[in-house]
Design a protein that fits this description.
- The chain has five helices and two strands.
- By secondary structure, the protein is mainly α.
- A two-stranded antiparallel ribbon has the order 1-2.
- It starts with 10 loop residues before the first helix and ends with a helix.
- 16% of the residues are buried.
- The model has no long low-confidence stretch (mean pLDDT 77).
């Protein structure tokens, strides 16, 4: 029996993975400059480099309306944050966020 120890993604790899998810699952057509830094930082910090958690957390953020993909006035793709939802999400403590993520997972599995 052998074991393979998986290491967390590097910060750069986390950003690339997040960008890839935004493009594939949410129709984002831009580059990293159109993604809010606080969203990148939040995903990177909370998921601790685990791609599965990045994917689940991003789904929960979009489902809660805390982010959405749109075109700006110049036709460039950007990720926008829903102000009231993002404030609600940002004001949650760790336990509340974990509960929200768990609820989003249950809805998605149903």
């Amino acid at each position: 029996l052998s074991y393979l120890k998986l290491m967390p993604l590097s910060t750069h790899a986390r950003e690339r993975f997040l960008l890839e998810l935004l493009r594939e699952k949410y129709g984002y057509g831009g580059d990293a400059s159109g993604v809010p830094l606080d969203l990148i930082d939040f995903m990177s910090e909370r998921a601790a480099g685990n791609p599965k958690y990045i994917q689940e957390m991003l789904a929960a953020v979009f489902k809660a309306g805390a982010a959405r993909c749109e075109l700006d006035e110049h036709g460039h793709s950007v990720v926008l944050r829903g102000a009231e939802k993002l404030e609600e999400w940002s004001s949650m403590d760790t336990d509340e966020r974990e509960s929200a993520l768990a609820a989003a997972r249950k809805v998605r599995l149903a």
